[in-house]
Design brief:
This protein is α/β, with parallel strands linked by helices. It contains seven helices and twelve strands.
Length: about 280
């Protein structure tokens, strides 16, 4: 059985500020040294999960860089034999690879809470202006969207590491069968209590091994189809733009909705509308 590891950065040990997760190329409020430290820990946590998966008998591991530009991994820190994916124009984005033949498990590393979460360090969903994502009336985050795409291919989420708020949300939505490993406790949007980085990696390795050993009994995540999806933005101008997309309806000033027959259509619409909504608010 092959596994895919989707690794984000906001949920890794030691991270509690946008400064730490913003590549210096963006300019503005960034710090090269802090970003370098965060990307190193991100890679090492992914490596720990990969080591655990291999120890559990995985025949192949693909690590998918899932943060921002998706060019953050330091591949020389990954175990030999592990493949990795980079670049932010991937068809399945954060879960690229789950469509490959033989993949039987998806692991989340460095995951964060959804937009609007109380105490969730750097809590957001996809970008800074999405306030809520609802599928069949249930608020979800990146973890739920990604789990649905993986479920479309029959791949279950078996493991998640990140902050305690994110992991509570993952357990509530995806079920208690997902092995979770918190590496920090959220105090607020910009504060957390962290494990020692090495201890975080050791715990991830052990928990990932346990999760992959039990993957054969895991169930892929799904929802009711056709599904009703809603996006709520921080400003009505974003909904103005999205309302013009065929198949999209206006719910209220800041919210739009559509129907999807399967996870791939839902995810594709979500990504497109998130991009369409990138409108200047001072036009």
């Amino acid at each position: 059985m092959k596994v895919v590891i989707s690794v984000d950065m906001e949920g890794v040990c030691g991270v509690a500020s946008w400064v730490q997760v913003s590549p210096p190329e963006f300019g503005g409020l960034v710090n090269g040294a802090e970003y370098q430290a965060a990307r190193t820990q991100m890679t090492l946590e992914a490596a720990a999960a990969a080591e655990g998966a291999l120890a559990a008998g995985a025949t192949g591991v693909l690590v998918n860089d899932s943060h921002d530009t998706m060019r953050n991994l330091l591949p020389e820190l990954l175990p030999r034999g592990v493949r990795f994916t980079t670049g932010n124009d991937k068809p399945l984005s954060m879960v690229q690879g789950v469509q490959e033949e033989g993949v039987g498990a998806l692991l989340f590393v460095g995951y964060h809470a959804r937009a609007g979460s109380v105490r969730g360090p750097l809590a957001h969903t996809w970008n800074g202006f999405l306030r809520d994502v609802r599928i069949n009336g249930r608020s979800t985050g990146e973890y739920g969207l990604n789990a649905l795409v993986a479920g479309h291919y029959g791949v279950p989420v078996v493991f998640a590491a990140g902050d305690d708020v994110a992991l509570a949300e993952i357990t509530a939505e995806l079920g208690e069968g997902v092995v979770i490993m918190p590496v920090k406790e959220g105090l607020s949007t910009f504060a957390a209590v962290h494990l020692h980085p090495q201890e975080a990696r050791e715990r991830i390795r052990e928990a990932a091994e346990r999760a992959v050993r039990g993957a054969a009994g895991a169930t892929p995540y799904t929802t009711r189809w056709p599904a009703h999806a809603e996006l709520r933005f921080d400003h009505q101008a974003r909904a103005d733009q999205c309302e013009r997309v065929p198949g999209v309806t206006r719910v209220d000033a800041e919210t739009v909705a559509w129907e999807s027959g399967d996870a791939l259509h839902l995810f594709g619409m979500f990504r497109m509308l998130a991009r369409v909504a990138e409108v200047k608010l001072n036009a």
